[in-house]
């Protein structure tokens, strides 16, 4: 097989970088993402008719979120579950531990954000909450276990960390596909490597 043919069969080398969010009113959205979620404004300006605000939490990334004016008013809600957006189902952020999840939960409560929906996915502990324009956000912490998704049970943040971890592990052990997250990641990494090389999966 020629190099050209082999290259054509594999997908391009890309990784997710950032997203742009259409907004109606950029100021309250900027305040929310900076004051509640800890982003920093890296640039702002106007181009192509948009007012743009660039936000990041990593100096290696000029921007991870772009807020751009132009969102139409009165977009109908999601027809299955109005908690989720009509076009953007959810925007998710990774946290590095339960202490950070609890810190965010307190900040959301103190800021008056409602509703806040804690969910146990087995492989992750999640909070779902809206931004000022109703976009559904998720902040999550990985657990050590994988189970087949979708999976959603209420997450009881009144439990201390040990009790919460024990409850989730018990749920996982009774669920389809249960194994360590590390084992699942190794399996999916092999599949991705095969795909990237253009080999059959």
Task: Note down, in words, how this protein is organized.
- By secondary structure, the chain is an alpha+beta fold.
- The chain folds into two domains: 17-70, Roll (2,3-Dihydroxybiphenyl 1,2-Dioxygenase, domain 1); 89-201, 2,3-Dihydroxybiphenyl 1,2-Dioxygenase, domain 1, CATH 3.10.180.
- The chain contains five helices and eleven strands, in the order αβαββββαβββββαβα.
- The chain has helices at residues 3-9, 26-36, 98-111, 161-173, 181-196; strands at residues 19-23, 40-47, 50-56, 65-69, 91-95, 117-120, 124-130, 136-142, 145-146, 153-154, 179-180.
- It has a five-stranded mixed sheet, covered by helices on one side.
- It is globular and about 50 Å long.
- The two termini are 18 Å apart.
Q: Oligomer, anyone?
A: single chain
The stretches of 5 or more residues where confidence is low (pLDDT under 50) are none
Specify the overall morphology. Answer: globular
How much β-strand is present in the residues? 25-35%
Category by helix and strand content: alpha+beta
Helix content bin: 25-40%
Whole-Å distance between the termini? 18 Å
Query: What string gives the helices and strands in order?
Result: HEHEEEEHEEEEEHEH
Contiguous helical run count: 5
The major beta sheet can be summarized as: 5 strands, mixed
What is the name of the CATH architecture of the largest domain? Roll
* Average pLDDT reading: 92
Over all CA atoms, what is the radius of gyration? Answer: 20 Å
**DSSP summary, beta strand count:** 11
CATH class of the largest domain: Alpha Beta
Q: Which fold name fills CATH's third level, the topology of the largest domain?
A: 2,3-Dihydroxybiphenyl 1,2-Dioxygenase, domain 1
Tell me the number of structural domains.
Answer: 2
For the largest beta sheet, what order do the strands appear in spatially?
Answer: 5-8-7-6-10
